Amino acid sequence: MSGKGTETRQLTEGVFVRFTADQMERLRGEAQTRGVSLPFLLRERSLGIERAAS
Q: Partner of 40 for a Cys bridge, out of 10, 15, 36, 49, CB 3.0 to 4.6 A?
């Protein structure tokens, strides 16, 4: 995967999804633990992408 800036520029589509406060807390915690952004975590999970260990 190339640098963050390159990935961000390529993303042109979006979708709005609602979560409960508890669900958001869990997702934010997981993203923080893994060292990724929440949007990255959601893309990874929804597309079934496995990130290679750094």
A: 36
pTM of the model: 0.69
Query: b/e string for 18-42 if b means 16 or more Cβ within 10 A?
Result: eeeeeeeeeeeeebeeeeeeeebbb
Tokens of 44: 């990874």
Tens of pLDDT, residues 1-54: 445 555 557 889 999 999 999 999 999 999 999 999 999 999 999 999 876 545
Q: Pseudo-torsion of CA 43, 30, 54, 10, nearest 10°? A: 20
